[in-house]
Amino acid sequence: MERLRIIGKKTVELLITLLAIATFNFVLFRVLPGNPLTLIARAGHLTEEMVHNIESIFGLDKSLWEQYFIYLKNIATGQFGISITYRRPVAEVIGERFGNTLILLAAATVIVIVVGIGLGIVAAKRRGTKADRSLVVASMIGWSLPTFWTGLMMIIVFSVSLHWLPVSGITTPGAFYANGWEHFADVARHLVLPTISLVIVDMAQFFLVTRTSLVEVMTEDYMLTAKGKGLSSNKALWRYALPNAMLPIITTLTLYVCLVIGGAIQVETVFSYPGMGMLMYDAVLKRDYPILEASFFILAGVTILSNFISDIIYMYIDPRVKSL
Amino acid sequence: MKNKNSVLSQLWKDHMGKAGLILLAIVFVMAILGPMVFPFDSSQTAQSSSEILNAPSVEHWLGTDDMGRDVFRSLLFGARISLFVGLMATLISIIVGTIVGLVSGYYRSIISVILMRITDVFLAIPVLPLIIVLAAVFGQSIFITIMVIGLTSWPSTARIVRSQVLSIRERMYIERIKNLGASDFRLMFRHVFPNVLPLIYANTVLVIAGSILSEATLAFLGLGDPVNVSWGTMLHYAFVSGAMGRGAWWYIIPPGVGILVIVLGFTLAGHCLDEITNPKLRRV
Predict the structure, then answer these.
(1) Continuous H helices in chain A
(2) Residues facing residue A89 across a β-bridge
(3) Scanning every residue of chain B, which has its alpha carbon at the shortest distance from the alpha carbon of A204?
(4) Which residues on B lie below 8 Å from A301 (Cβ)?
(5) A303 → closest Cβ in B16, B117, B124
(6) Short-list A279, A208, A107, A285, CA closest to B224
(7) Per-residue pLDDT tens for A113-169?
């Protein structure tokens, strides 16, 4: 029951946060820049009658409150308006890109978690040694790298100089695939450099948290007892240290998701990878506000949702939160 | 202030802290003295296409950019912009974060609940998309960049300050001062704040690193100030002018290394400070 109550509370918080972001969007994009008409009619001269027509089409003749509720209703039903550059519904344009970003994020996240935690274990076991110190310094260098520049360097080294991997896109233009496997291989080749760029920069957090929390756990009395009982240090690590170090690692997920989404925007821009990030970059250059607004809402939504999921996982792993 | 000196010397004793301080010294010298010795004028573009994207030479130590300007001079000037934006944004962020943290930790009322909710929302939103939409709507200038980064990076400070205030508030002497008739405002800023300050040193230094990275990224995505060319703006122009395809490494490597050096300097110093000021970490 206790767990259900917490899940209920978290769900309410999730909805309030989404409402806050939608409201922020409404204020930022509808109220602040003034009348959206000025955007639509940037080019020509409009007669009064035309202005009235457009106003009634877009519901601008209604009060701000009415507009706000219509706006919320539209978002709830997945209507984000029409893109200025693509002249198509925003939801449709984003729908085509969203999957690509998810693939990139998934590839990077799996590697970051496996390698980050793995290296964290290695460093914690050898703490104080040269290997440990080099790993810590390397992770801080990775952390300090601008993601977009890391991508640019990848292109200079592996694409322009060595010709090993493609420079941009998600598939080779004009390629013909005999079977699904070839298609998959082509996409995978295009994913290598963007993924590595993301991993290099965003792994540090996982590595450092794993290392620190493991080192902290290892100095606890019960670890000494485990060793005193004759447990091998490997067994003690996997059976006692890691499960206890897991909680701070899960908390890191929130921060990581915020970071990696920012990273994805950058590598997608650099590698012209057709995902949400490149969509946002193009929208910035063309000031396509409907696209920007919806992209922000969806990326924030994804982050908040993953936050919510990690909270739930945390609750099930943390022995202190027991059902009553 | 005596305390500060000892912090610096403690930083210097640590390998990582020393490396951080040296990197920072290099960048500060570049930013302060560089443009005095090698002035840079962003409007001084090339007269003919033969001066565009030239490789490094005796005349142009780091070659020329896509508009024929000297990359070395641009790099020195960019250090100033990146550092200035990073420091100013951090100042705003620390002021807002400290006030939010103090108020929400000190008062047990609906205000503090609302403030903490806002902090949580900010912490849960990915920062880059947020600053992109803000900069896109409000326009491109160094002032907007500073405001946008400063007003979105305060939640971590607010959290730290608040948790400290919560523990300090319960202490005996605060209760006594209150009984002596001190106002809430005086109590917060004269008695609670000084006790919180040492704990936000490390966070402040790390916020500077984050702000500089944010500025570089924003500028790279084309949302920088076109007049005050920062390292991110340089990389933006390099990227859109196709410097990579033309093999103009001298236009791409130096600004990136600059960002790396300055951010790494603050990051190393920040982590080291954290270990010095946070005793719990010391044995690790």
Answers:
(1) 2-26, 37-40, 48-57, 64-76, 90-125, 130-144, 147-154, 180-202, 204-218, 221-228, 233-236, 242-270, 276-286, 289-317
(2) A82
(3) B267
(4) none
(5) B124
(6) A285
(7) 999 989 998 898 888 888 888 899 899 999 999 999 999 999 888 887 787 877 777
Q: How far is B260 from chain A (nearest CA, A)?
A: 5
Q: By residue range, what is the domain housing residue A215? A: 2-33+78-317
Output the six-digit token pair for A108.
């990077």
- AA letter at A190: H
* CB neighbour list of residue A132: distance below 8 Å, 6 or more residues apart: A123, A124, A126, A211
Residue listed under structure tokens 């984050």: B210
Give the domain CATH number at A271: 1.10.3720.10
Q: Phi/psi of residue A287, each to 5°?
A: 50, 45
Note which residues in 182-221 of chain A have CB less than 8 A from chain B: 212, 215-216, 219
State the maximum Cα–Cα separation within chain B, in Å, rounded to a whole number.
77
Q: Please check whether residue A71 lies inside any domain of the structure.
A: no
Nearest to B156 by CA among B193, B205, B109: B205
Q: In angstroms, rounded to a whole number, what is the distance separating the alpha carbons of residues A75 and A71?
A: 6
User: Closest-CA residue in chain A for B223?
Assistant: A284
SS3 letters across A258-310: HHHHHHHHHHHHHCCCCCHHHHHHHHHHHCCHHHHHHHHHHHHHHHHHHHHHH
- Report if residue A52 sits inside a domain: no
Whole-prediction pTM value?
0.87
ipTM, two decimals, is 0.87
Tokens 């233009």 belong to which residue? A173
Whether the CB-CB separation of A135 and A123 falls below 8 Å is answered with yes
Spell out the domain ranges in chain B: 16-27+69-281
Convert the pLDDT of each residue in A17-32 to its tens digit: 889 888 888 888 776 6
Domain count of the fold of chain A: 1
A119 located within any domain: yes
* DSSP assignment string, A117-150: HHHHHHHHHTTTSHHHHHHHHHHHHHHHS-HHHH
Question: Is A179 a member of any domain?
Answer: yes
The CATH code that applies to domain B16-27+69-281 is 1.10.3720.10
